[in-house]
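lol ok so funny story. i was supposed to be doing the assay writeup but got distracted and ended up predicting the structure for this chain instead. priorities right. anyway since i did it might as well share w the group, maybe its usefull for someone
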Amino acid sequence: MLRNNTEERNCLLLSIFTFLLHLLTIKYYPVNFEFSFSEGAKFIDNFDQKVIDEYFFNQANTFVFPLIIGLINKSLMINDTLISAKLISGTSYIFLGIGFVKIFRYYKIKFSCFFFLIFFFLNPLIWTYGHRGIPDLFAVSIAFYSFASILEKKEIKSKKNYVGFLLLGISICLKPFCLIYLGLIFLLEYNNDIFKSFKKFFLPFSISLFLPFIYFLIIKINYGFYLIPEKFSSEVSFLKGGFINNFLGYFIILSIFIFPLSFKNYFVNIKNILFIIFILLPLSFYLGFIINSPQAELNFGSLNHLVGDEIIFFIGSISLFILFLYLFDYIKNKQVNKLEFLITVFVYILILSLTRPSQRYLIIILPIMMIFFLITGNFKKKTIFFPIILLHTSFNIFLSINFYLNSSINKTIVEYLTQEDILKNTLPGPLYPHSYHFFYSKNDKNYIITRDPKNNIKEFKKNIYFLEKKFYLRKI
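and the output, tada:
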């Protein structure tokens, strides 16, 4: 629990405030397969097997998040699974906030935890997933909270840690990649004696792995797969899309999200300025253009379309080299006492690079990378953080507007088609990720939603300043 400390209380209040702030979007229409989880949660109502079948038709995620949504929705009598999903997702900030308080306390980090949480919560990768009814941020938050709680209690085998390991097991059920936190615990606590380590880790690790084992066994028996439905298996198969591109692309995006924690003052002398001008910038420029990888989801979405892939990855390449310089200085000065965090991040990205890439997978290791810099860095001045916080805030506003436009135009289209009584006779086209469940039927399809204005019979348009969404209804 939190101690009677003003800074820690302020951190908790900030976490609660961030959670409440995200509730402003709680009634927004679902986007990007949010409906899969909220519709899947309705399985709890009558245990209809068809609900699970339809879920796995649209989702490669586990069915655990819909089960949690359904249980919370029924227990609290909310009667709206989408609202329940967003409430659960929003609690991520509270778990993350308390987790970082525990980390600051455990490692005796002198930098302001309150100020850091402002910086961390406003990180676009964290901010944008907190108001969506999906499991990504929630899974990471309970994994990180469990990790911090286990570290704080120091004794791995302590019965007080059993709840933490159980929560970690739930996070692995939600997102199997959360297994990386068990790996980090092992690295931090390993004492170079295999036999003693086996005795030390067997019971607590068994607690974490029991629930995932039972869940995946049940799925295998009933559906014939362990992790991913056959429909999606080809999309996430190994060596999909180029290992080198994926590997460097992940580190480029990660380096953007952790800046300015990776920045050091040694850039101010003349020697380093020349190095930046004649070596860093040309190499960054080169990497930014040859590794501009819009494949799969390894990008910044709509921002890539606005400013271009090359510019995004050029900026990222600069932050990547700043990160490498930080790590070079870290190793050169033999500060290898917290190398476990870097090993964990490296192994995680190595594994990710072998499959279909997506920037949201970095959410899982972002707290781990932050801890590394908080422990090894020396942040005496906060001034360098302010322009980054301003930049993150601007980007979050952009993302929020884009989210609102996607949400509102989808709602408008569905309402219009319902009013005209042609919803079940229309193919969703580009609306499939947002509204498939409304369009689903075995009726003949006479219409289609498209982005192509040619031969349209109805235009749907939403815009806020320079951001605009347009779709068209066309007869087939």
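The chain has a mean pLDDT of 85. The longest helix spans residues 385-419.
back to the writeup now i swear
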